[in-house]
Amino acid sequence: MFLRELRQSVTTLKGAGPSVAEKLARLGIFSLADLLLHYPRDYDDRTVFVPLLDSIKVGRAHTIVTVLSQEWFGYGRMRTLKLLVEDQSGVAALLCFNRPFLEQSLPVGARALVTGKFQFRRGEIQSSSFEAERLGDGEALPRGLIPLYAATDSLPQGSIRRLLKEALREGGTRVEDEIPPPLREARGLLHKGEALLGIHAPDSVATLNLARESLIYEELFYFQLAVARRAFSRRRDRVQRRPGPGILRQRLLERLPFALTPDQEKSAAEIIADMALPHPMGRLLQGDVGSGKTLVAFLACLEAIEAGGQAALMAPTELLARQHGETAARLLEPLGIRLAFLSGNIDDAARPPLLAALKAGEVDLVLGTHALFSDEVKYKNLRLAVVDEQHRFGVLQRLALGRKGPLPDLLMMTATPIPRTLALTVFGDLAVSTIKTMPPGRKPIETHLARAGNETKVYDYVRRLLAAGRQAYFVYPLIGQSERLELKNAEAMYEKLAREIYPDFKLGLIHSRLKEEDKRATMTAFSKGEIQVLVATSVVEVGVDVPNAVAMVVEHAERFGLAALHQLRGRVGRGQDQSYCFLVYGEPLTEDGKARLKALLGTTDGFLLAEEDLRIRGPGEIAGTAQSGSLRLTIADPARDLAVLEKARADAFALVEADPGLLSPEGSLVREVLSRANPFGEAPAGRG
């Protein structure tokens, strides 16, 4: 089956009329290819039946039941359907949370095949995590490994299975192979058609495992092929280098009241070495919050400036960009470096002369926000582009800054450490420098959990710290009151904290809706110690460095992601004093919420937390790739499939290195294979 046929509408299938097509569209299924790539999320092993009574021992039942009764419990939005069912061994209850439609699909007297996790609670066998498929009178029972798909209320499992069976019969098993035959044979993988049949209709566990491995390899191989093309394309480009003697870097190091950590020295050396190579640098500098990445970036900027070029440092928020600007003014202006700041809030009168100075080369280092890559900004000789908190920018935004000069070096920084699996995928075309060691004298931050309702103890502890001359943050998930969510918000809590909790101290409020000058004035006052308590939203997640702030209180901590909580915690512990992070959480907690809080309580190591965040959230979101569209994986999971990923990466890089023609759209394999880099889709972008 060719790509043209696979892109046909699902309505070409028997039984997929307009009504069914509309239901499939809710699952993101529009074409035959979409349907074939709608892989099962799990399998129901119907080779062994487990009756209800035995489920107490093994925790799982797989049996045919009859619905005895229906009843409802709870009120309003919490109203929930409860089904009493019976098999030959006994009676159990099915708690149908968020599944009111089962009242219609499983009426009293209906026969159904039920599979799920069961336990004995409240005097009965019950399950809230189950699959139920209604059986017709005399209907033959499906046997073997039965695929379970993401479904909708109106499009149940059986309908999706029937449509996939039809799609496979119509030619899904004859899909063109997408792995070059030598690689497929060397890796012992199935042909694409065989793999699709094995994933949707496996005849054994062995077949299923081989089919899954074949499809996972294929997906990761084409992703790595695009990564390899970007890496080799960068190496193919040639730039003229005129390395400086390193005088500016040495002068900066001599002015510092401390020595670099070993990891800072190593990372700086790796970056400077890259900037001497005959092709543009592409490097990721990762390090935990407070590890000293900005100083390393400044050393790289001085290298570019001393070589006769300009440098630009882009940050995701004006707050962070201005803090970088203040640090640069303190460290670099005494060296004679000409600095400028550019953001969307620079007034109309100041903007034209600033842009003219950049274009004329009268600015050595410009710091700012995304305004640095707007069309009106021209550089005389941009040699280094630094992107801080790179995960907050889309791929196209990062590339736009890189295009502002004649093949400038690119240094991306992140305080959210990148797990090895993502380093090989999303950032696989970049070299990676890592700063793990923290500056000497820093004490580990103590993290404490408090259940909502017990926050008075937290307030009292923070009051003692404030009385001792220290400062604190209070962070909330919302700016103001919400009609949908009953959560504390920054504006209301600012009033309450100032009036009732800490009337003897000066408080400040900061959030994204305030004017930039107001935010800047509040942050300046907090930095100077004129404000003791800063009430905020997650706008303070990055870029706030106040050594005297020793307490971070996050209320409704369950509403924040793991990376965000770790970043917020990193706002304290910047000085020599013991610092504390208090996470106040509400109930009920989801399993993911419990996992996040448990992880934060267990370690302050950002690298370990990054791995846990990857496990909880998945690869696309954590890497900041949702906005870039660069990591659309349908079956592969880099964290789970690391061994396959490393094989696919080695094969892809070897293939590109052996065939330079792959770097051009006219390359032979590009025509035959790379056009299907995203399965059944379009070729990936070229250099980038």
Structural notes for this entry:
This protein is an alpha/beta fold. Among the domains are: 48-142, Nucleic acid-binding proteins (OB fold (Dihydrolipoamide Acetyltransferase, E2P), Beta Barrel); 247-435, Rossmann fold; 446-603, Rossmann fold (3-Layer(aba) Sandwich). Helices cover 38% and strands 18% of the residues. The strands form 4 sheets. It has a 7-stranded parallel β-sheet with strand order 10-11-9-12-13-8-14, with helices on both faces. A 6-stranded parallel β-sheet has the order 15-20-19-16-18-17, with helices on both faces. Strands 2-3-4-6-5 form a 5-stranded mixed beta barrel. α8 packs across α9 and α21 (591-602) runs antiparallel to α22. 41% of the residues are buried. Residues 620-631 and 665-688 have low confidence and may be disordered.
